[in-house]
Design a protein that fits this description.
Elements lengths: L6 H7 L91 E2 L8 E2 L35 E4 L4 E4 L74 E4 L6 E11 L46 H4 L10 E12 L4 E3 L9 E7 L22 H7 L3 E8 L2 E11 L20 E2 L24 E2 L3 E10 L6 E8 L1 E6 L2 E5 L7 E7 L5 E7 L10 E5 L8 E10 L6 E7 L7 E4 L66
Antiparallel strand pairs: 1-2, 3-4, 5-23, 6-7, 6-14, 7-8, 8-22, 9-11, 10-11, 12-13, 14-21, 15-18, 15-22, 16-17, 16-21, 18-19, 19-20
């Protein structure tokens, strides 16, 4: 074999000199993390390589200043070469001296141009990866496709990802903006992502807000390399489209916690009603996008316009604000709604059966059965109800049955953990008839029957943006107590103001850009009140972006219900995916040689490396060794080859 290396240098480096793949690498502490360097069959049985990394940090290139072997650049892979792509140019995958396959490349087969490799999770950050932290775990800053996740910044190879601080006036990592605070609805979200500007009528959509308006794409960030550029242009090798929403959608919300009687409008000691008090707020929002008290008297229980103005703005010493997101769950009817359980569980409406047999007279010893005849339990089972709980009460059995599953949340207490209000102001809550048809107003209790104590006196503010299309129908349905106002395009669309039991309100937006609102009380009184219906002139124009703003207040210590349903309001950001087979390696692909037929050291179907490779722990043809780490002494060199 040919070599023009000085003997002393060979003696020092042989046999572990990594004349393949990447620069020398320090083994990961996790030996199961296998990336490695793929070496194909070459002339004389020697291998070339793929520059992959398994969560290792790179050392200086020991081959950089070495002379090229005599045959370097002839396109024939000799035993004294790591690669040979037919030239002596660095930066194209094979170094100018043919002694190193550069990181992020595969030089198989010899004599042809090397092709790009980006194996997300191997710890080696190479284009087009935006980060690579050595794993494909979501939520740690670097996504499973090696994209920097919202709330993080990532540096180095392997990437070290740390949290960004939204609100520090520094735009870092995946942030698209930073206005010095971490509150939404001011143009920059609580995640430091752009929001539409809705100060004057229809909104102005900005690149990075996730709404495609006059843009090729908008994936909700201002990052290059992920398919949709920082200027909202579709990048080469990608296709972008707005996907259908998944099982959930998130809407931003701000909760503001108040003390009792601070202002005096909260916990005023009044008895609620079965219906709302419309007219409490003006028909349009003010210049800051907030509702304005109209001055209505009677049962509004508002001290003044000044006290009302504190409900939906941050006032030191009066309230405490928390930015959050509300999860809406797919309801199977083309809409999304909030629910009681953290995983989308619906509230179970129940009834109690008070005679399900005598203790000691069960059928085959089974509780809530009666050997002598039919019981209330049997009747409920016949109706298709599911038994939730059975217990002995004296000498008889009682049971609880689930009669239906209901959306929304009858115990809506989002500020229970806010320390602004002392524990002495926590109180029990009751379940309203809307969620408990027995109209018994039962207490909300834990598994042991003990009252859960909740933090009342709070407001919520939800905002959501949508692109209006006159060919679609949009529906917003709401149930709540106490006060609820819905504004669309800054115009009052649903008015459920006042202290009251849950009331339903809905609005349907049609092709004319206007809405039809329906309001109905939920309390089971006889005769039931007739729902009221009215028209709302929203003035929406097709192809424009508009804002929905939902304001709610919980002012009376009795119960707290909230149900928000959105239908048709799809504002999912662009989903960009790489085009496998175009010969361009893009984020989400490990490789793309334009053919992708597979084989050792080549790209396989789906733009994935699917054959064995150096680093898989198996010595394959063309490899001298493979210990699964391949980082040098005392083990195998990173190219799985011993070159002398």
């Amino acid at each position: 074999m040919q070599s023009n290396f000085p003997a002393s240098l060979i003696a020092f480096l042989s046999p572990w000199l990594l004349f393949a793949c990447s620069s020398a690498e320090v083994a990961s502490s996790n030996p199961s993390s296998k990336g490695g360097n793929v070496g194909p069959l070459g002339s004389g049985g020697a291998g070339g390589g793929i520059s992959l990394n398994t969560g290792r940090s790179t050392q200086p290139d020991l081959t950089a200043n070495m002379a090229a072997p005599p045959g370097c650049g002839d396109g024939i892979l000799a035993n004294d070469e790591a690669c040979d792509d037919g030239n002596k140019v660095s930066g194209d995958g094979c170094s100018a001296n043919c002694l190193r396959v550069e990181p992020g490349y595969s030089c198989i087969p010899p004599g042809q141009l090397c092709h790009q490799i980006a194996r997300c999770g191997d710890g080696l950050k190479v284009p087009p990866e935006l980060c690579d932290d050595g794993n494909t775990t979501a939520g740690d800053g670097c996504s499973p496709t090696c994209k920097v996740e919202i709330g993080y910044k990532c540096d180095g190879s392997p990437s070290v990802c740390t949290h960004t601080t939204c609100g520090d006036n520094k735009i870092e990592g995946a942030e698209g903006c930073d206005d010095g605070n971490a509150m939404p609805f001011d143009g920059c979200s609580a995640d430091c992502q752009n929001e539409p500007n809705c100060k004057s009528g229809s909104c102005t959509s900005r690149c990075g807000d996730g709404i495609v308006l006059g843009e090729e794409c908008d994936d909700g960030n201002n990052v290059d390399g992920d398919g949709c550029s920082k200027d909202c242009k579709i990048e080469a090798g990608f296709t972008c489209a707005q996907p259908a929403l998944g099982d959930t959608m998130m809407v931003p919300v701000v909760y503001r916690d108040f003390r009792y009687h601070n202002p005096v409008d909260f916990e005023a000691g009044v008895v609620g009603s079965y219906a709302g008090f419309p007219g409490m707020v003006n028909a349009t929002l003010d210049a800051n996008g907030k509702p304005v008290y109209s001055g209505i008297g009677g049962n509004a229980h508002v001290a003044s316009a000044d006290s009302f103005s504190q409900w939906y703005k941050d006032v030191t010493g009066v309230n405490h604000s928390t930015a959050s997101k509300m999860t809406l769950w797919k309801n199977g009817q083309g809409a999304y709604v909030n629910r009681y359980g953290p995983n989308g569980e619906q509230w179970a409406t129940t009834i109690t059966a008070y005679f399900c047999g005598n203790v000691g007279n069960e059928v085959n010893g089974q509780p809530c059965t009666f050997v002598y005849g039919q019981t209330d339990c049997d009747k409920n089972v016949a109706l298709g109800y599911k038994m939730l709980k059975c217990w002995a009460n004296g000498g008889n059995y009682n049971a609880t049955f689930v009669t239906s599953q209901v959306d929304g949340n009858p115990v809506f207490f989002p500020v229970d953990d806010d320390p602004f209000t002392p524990a002495t102001e926590r109180a029990f809550a009751t379940i309203p008839p809307y969620y408990d048809p027995g109209a018994t107003w039962p207490h909300d209790v834990d598994a042991n029957g003990v009252d859960r104590l909740h933090n009342f006196s709070f407001t919520s503010e939800v905002r959501y943006w949508f692109l209006y299309d006159k060919a679609k129908t949009y529906t917003l349905d709401f149930t709540g107590d106490d006060d609820v106002w819905v504004f669309i395009n800054k115009k009052l669309s649903v008015d459920l103001g006042g202290i009251h039991t849950p009331v339903n309100g809905s609005i349907v937006i049609g092709a004319n850009g206007n809405g039809t609102t329906t309001v109905a009380a939920t309390y089971p009184i006889s005769p039931p009140p007739v729902p009221t219906q009215s028209s709302v002139n929203l003035g929406l124009q097709s192809g424009q972006v508009y804002e929905i703003a939902v304001f709610q207040a919980e002012r009376q210590t009795t119960s707290s219900s909230y149900k928000l349903t959105l239908s048709g309001f799809n504002a999912a950001p662009s989903d960009c995916s790489p085009t496998c087979g175009d010969g361009i390696v893009e984020l989400g692909e490990e490789c793309d040689d334009g053919v992708n037929t597979g084989g050792y050291g080549k790209c396989g179907p789906g733009c994935k490396l699917q054959s064995g490779f150096c680093g898989d722990g198996v010595v394959q043809p063309g490899e001298d060794c493979d210990d699964g780490v391949n980082a040098g002494p005392p083990g195998c060199p990173s190219g799985c080859r011993m070159i002398f």
